[in-house]
Specification:
Blueprint (H helix, E strand, L loop, with lengths): L2 E2 L1 H9 L9 E3 L4 E3 L20 H37 L5 H4 L3 H16 L8 H7 L4 H11 L4 H19 L4 H7 L5 H12 L3 H8 L11
Antiparallel strand pairs: 1-3, 2-3
Length: about 220
């Protein structure tokens, strides 16, 4: 079994960034090293004496390293969430890859978009129907959407419909009242209110500002 002074061992691990030994058994004068599992930091295999501070220093070091790694991961996840929410709020086209932080979330968003697309003109299609189509309870879907985009499933359903309406405004010359029916809104007035809340302008203004070549449609007024 190799023997090493704990002061030299401390220096080699901390300053030279070497992989820590597999096992540490500290006595009053010397340190014995022997292999065992990598999680020795929490193992009872470390026998400390009053004269040795190496184990305490190493545990503090590992704790700080783990805290920094956790903070980094949390920061990265927070940035991904913020970017996803910004992407969903600003873009007309909803891209599951850009608003999901994992493959599981991407699959869920794809299922939701498919279900909404198949019921786009159905004014009776509610959050309960959406939850049923994606195989989740309403409460579970609510929690998932809060984590994913910070909105409710009802907000997601409405906004996806409004984004589809925006595409129709840009790509067609259909009147606003017809577009509102195609996306499941029973009244043009309520559709215009929701559209203004999301895009900051009425459907007619959105069409004029973003599709100058199409011109103003007299049915939009």
């Amino acid at each position: 079994m190799p023997v090493q002074n704990y002061g030299l061992l401390f220096k080699s691990v901390f300053f030279n960034r070497l992989k820590p030994p597999k096992r540490i058994v500290l006595t009053q004068k010397q340190t014995f090293l022997a292999p065992f599992s990598d999680d020795f930091c929490t193992s009872k295999a470390c026998f400390l004496t009053e004269s040795s501070t190496f184990a305490h220093r190493f545990l503090k070091y590992r704790r700080r390293e783990m805290e920094r790694e956790n903070e980094k991961r949390v920061g990265q996840l927070f940035e991904l969430r913020e970017e996803a929410r910004h992407q969903f709020a600003q873009a007309v086209n909803v891209n599951p890859r850009k608003i999901a932080a994992s493959h599981e979330e991407e699959v869920l968003v794809e299922k939701m978009l498919k279900a909404i697309g198949q019921n786009m003109d159905n004014c009776d299609y509610t959050v309960d129907c959406l939850a049923l189509d994606v195989g989740m309870s309403r409460a579970s879907l609510y929690k998932k959407m809060q984590v994913l985009l910070g909105i409710t499933p009802n907000d997601f359903l409405r906004n996806v419909r409004l984004k589809h309406a925006a595409k129709l405004l840009l790509e067609t010359n259909e009147p606003v009242n017809q577009i509102s029916l195609q996306i499941g809104f029973q009244t043009t007035r309520y559709f215009s209110q929701c559209f203004r809340s999301l895009f900051g302008m009425t459907p007619s203004e959105f069409r004029r500002e973003n599709s100058p070549s199409s011109g103003a449609n007299p049915h939009d007024e």
